[in-house]
Amino acid sequence: xAVARQSFKEITDTGDGCRPPLNGAFMATRLHVLHPxxxxxxxALMPVAIGADxxxxxxxxxxxxxxxxxxxxxxxxxxxxxxxxxxxxxxxxHLEGExxxxxxVTHRNLNLGITAAALVMVGxxxxxxxxxxxxLLSGFGGLAGLFYTAxxxxxxxxxxxxxxxxxxxxxxxxxxxxxxxxxxxVVGTGAANVRxxxxxxxxxxxxxxxxxQLRFNPPMPPS
Length: 223
What we know:
This is DUF2231 domain-containing protein. Keywords: Membrane, Transmembrane, Transmembrane helix. The protein is an all-alpha fold. The chain has one domain (about 30-215). Helices cover about 65% and strands about 0% of the residues. Helix 4 (about 40-60) runs antiparallel to helix 7 and helix 6 runs antiparallel to helix 7.
């Protein structure tokens, strides 16, 4: 604890015995950071939805089935929010190389597909008191896809520096700081990013780029 306190003091000390206000030094974040904040909703809720339905079906507990039904609705809401914020983030991050781009396109397209599937599953589930085998199989497929796209998201950040300012992974003009004085700019930039992101989705799908990471072979380094 003493080491942690010393490190914090060293970070925040300005040299004259004063420390900068936390809201200025630590709390301001950028528009693209909304995506990693929101993406945890479907990642956490979909396993709950499917897991509760599986337990409810095999134990006969209606309460668990009801939890599964409601959690799937929340999963779909979280998926929509995550997808929209993902389009915003896509336009605000800087990536270099075909491998990084392939991961981004695959991450985005599969997440859009999983979100659409979750919306369909909400309507499907509402018509049943307990989940059918087909519904559960679809849910497990969705979970597999969700975990794969989560891995791709981690690769984009931790391997390629997407959205990391110190790694040069942010296009600052596309990701203003989330401060009250920037409210109009944040809304305008966010809307513009969504429009541009949707345009890129359509263009790349027309070019046949659905999940390029699945067929991408990075060049081998020279021996």
